[in-house]
């Protein structure tokens, strides 16, 4: 990956398009947003793959991320809570949670930040 740095932003040309990073969220993605997106995206992809292998059918899934940052100068990410909301018929909450735990252990992005950043993953079944 190659990044071009200017006064206003940082850009990179990727196969899916241009990625723009900036401290100003009106100009591009803030670095912490990209970090949280990486955690949510990786976990979701692994989770979907595990559910498919287990033949668990679901209709819709969303992930809500809650971020806790330190109050010091650096303002580092201390904790990310990912709440997976899964909609479908006859879903087993214990099986969904167990599968999410397996996904977390197999997500390269989550495993790259633990234990520096606490990552908590929960699942909630939404009425279909």
Automatic annotation (TrEMBL):
Pfam families xref list: OsmC (PF02566)
Q: Which SUPFAM superfamilies match?
A: OsmC-like
Domain of life of the organism encoding this protein: Bacteria
InterPro entries (UniProt xref): KH_dom-like_a/b, OsmC/Ohr_fam, OsmC/Ohrsf
List the protein's name. Answer: OsmC family protein
Which lineage is the organism of this entry classified under, starting from the top rank? Bacteria, Bacillati, Bacillota, Bacilli, Bacillales
């Amino acid at each position: 990956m190659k990044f071009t740095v200017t006064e206003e932003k940082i850009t990179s040309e990727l196969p899916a398009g241009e990625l723009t990073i900036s401290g100003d969220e009106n100009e591009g993605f803030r670095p912490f947003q990209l970090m949280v997106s990486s955690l949510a995206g990786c976990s979701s992809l692994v989770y979907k793959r595990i559910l498919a292998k287990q033949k668990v059918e679901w209709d819709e899934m969303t992930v809500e991320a809650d971020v806790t940052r330190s109050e010091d100068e650096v303002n580092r990410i201390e904790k990310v809570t990912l709440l997976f909301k899964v909609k479908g018929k006859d879903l087993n909450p214990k099986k969904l949670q167990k599968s999410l735990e397996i996904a977390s252990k197999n997500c390269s992005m989550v495993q790259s930040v633990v234990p520096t950043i606490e990552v908590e993953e929960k699942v909630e079944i939404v009425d279909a």
